[in-house]
Design goal:
232 residues, elongated, alpha+beta, 3 helices, single chain, 3-stranded mixed β-sheet
Amino acid sequence: MTDEQNRPENDDQPEPVVRDKRRLDPETGEVRSESSADVPSEDGGTAAVDGVDDLPSAEAPDVEVASDAEAPAGAAEAAAEMSAEDEAILDEASRDLVADMRQDMLRAQAELVNFRRRVERDREANREAVVAEVVRSLLPALDDLVRAEQHGDLAEGPMTVIAQKIRGGLDKFGLVQIGAKGDVFDPTMHDALVQLPSPDVTVNTVADVIEPGYKIGDRVIRAAKVAVHAPQ
């Protein structure tokens, strides 16, 4: 029997690969690095590498792109048409935005004007309230001056000058005396202490003023205490 006949049928199969995993290199006696590994070599075997840098690099195939490649037909026209639509949309959005900002500005101005009016109104009301409180505290002195004048004590002497100065100072704040004989009775300005029937009147009329009242502007500081004639 010849050698060719004795050769096994699977002779074309690759021989088993034996990897040397010994820590010491048998040739140099040096300690091998733990990162060393056996990788397949180009001839189908294995080769020891010490790091990633020793690994063979794979190159991607080169793809050439023609520099004179043209865009599909109609692409420029489509881009121009979309640009016109975009401009129209942007113009409309800008107009809406400007209109909204104008409305917000007008609304803010109106609110500012109303706020200023409220502040001025409240300031004037507070001023009148303070003045009314001060004048109210001086009403007993005014009542004494009225009584003294009725009794003739202010005809002459220093009290006449004092009374004039006090009344002149209060007149600057708009103090007005209310309640006079013959006035039509007004419950907002008159306080009826006595009511007497009378055939001479057709409506409730002030018959006599017991104590005068005062007001500043539309604010009544004190109602006048009066006697009233009522129709029979």
